[in-house]
């Protein structure tokens, strides 16, 4: 049976809830529709998050992203909507979603959204020789 788009993601317990670590995902086939013309907009999404209690299950994330394929949405709106939804479901310590939309009318659009828990502070960067 083929998969269908889904309006939600599944999560699972963080296997290392006491540790700060970063999860990075590249989603190269994101598609939505221009709300004005109905033409498809293509983007590569870069999702980076530091989990707290929950992690996102990958297949459900793929099906969630698929749910935007037939929806009209401005780049800024859809990037914020996805970030807000994932932040609400995962309650991560930190989340960044970067959407790099393909050129349209000679313009490249890049939208970067961040969410973080108010008390979370990242570890200082390590500089190696």
Report the average pLDDT across residues. 95
Main sheet characteristics:
4 strands, antiparallel
- The strand order across the widest sheet is 2-3-5-6
Instruction: Please compute the radius of gyration using only Cα atoms.
Output: 16 Å
Describe the secondary-structure layout.
Blueprint (H helix, E strand, L loop, with lengths): L10 E3 L9 E11 L6 E11 L3 E3 L1 H9 L8 H16 L3 E11 L2 E10 L13
Antiparallel strand pairs: 1-4, 2-3, 3-5, 5-6
Structure characterization notes:
The chain has 129 residues and is an alpha+beta fold. The protein contains 2 helices and 6 strands, in the order E-E-E-E-H-H-E-E. It is 19% helix and 38% strand. The longest helix is centred in the middle third of the chain and has 16 residues. The N and C termini lie far apart (52 Å). 20% of the residues are buried.
């Amino acid at each position: 049976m083929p998969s269908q788009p889904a309006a939600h993601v599944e999560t699972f317990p963080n296997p290392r809830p006491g540790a700060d670590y970063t999860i990075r995902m590249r989603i190269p086939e994101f598609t939505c529709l221009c709300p004005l013309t109905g033409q498809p907009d293509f983007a590569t999404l870069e999702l980076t998050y530091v989990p707290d209690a929950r992690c996102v299950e990958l297949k459900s994330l793929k099906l969630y992203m698929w749910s935007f394929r037939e929806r009209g949405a401005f780049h800024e709106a859809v990037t914020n909507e996805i970030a807000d939804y994932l932040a609400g479901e995962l309650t991560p310590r930190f989340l960044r979603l970067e959407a790099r939309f393909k050129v349209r009318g000679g313009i490249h659009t890049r939208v970067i959204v961040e969410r973080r828990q108010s008390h979370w502070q990242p570890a200082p960067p390590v500089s190696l020789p």
